[in-house]
Amino acid sequence: xxxxxxxxxxxVAVLKQAELGLPVADLVRQVGxxxxxxxxxxxxxxxxxxxxxxELKQVVEENVRLKKLxxxxxxxxAVLQDVLSKKFPGRRS
Length: 93
Description:
The chain has helices at residues 8-19, 24-31, 35-45, 50-87. The protein is mainly α and 93 residues long. It has two domains: 1-48, Arc Repressor Mutant, subunit A (Orthogonal Bundle), CATH 1.10.10; 49-93. The chain is rod-shaped, with a radius of gyration of 23 Å. The mean pLDDT is 88. GO terms for molecular function: DNA binding; transposase activity. InterPro entries: Homeodomain-like_sf, Transposase_8, Transposase_8_domain.
């Protein structure tokens, strides 16, 4: 079975349809997802508006970028400490 990727805007639209009274069983069949996926989306995105979803997406992207930056800087620090300890064997960090 081919796995579909839904944008956060599409997910919020599906959740809004459920809030308007469309039965969950009909909605998940129409969209092509499982009930488990629907309830996971509801737990994660429930109560969000589309502008909040965009903001959430931006924050997540920035978080990923910052984590990558911290990892790179930590690696640079470890390499520099290793070089320093080899150059001056008696020095403690």
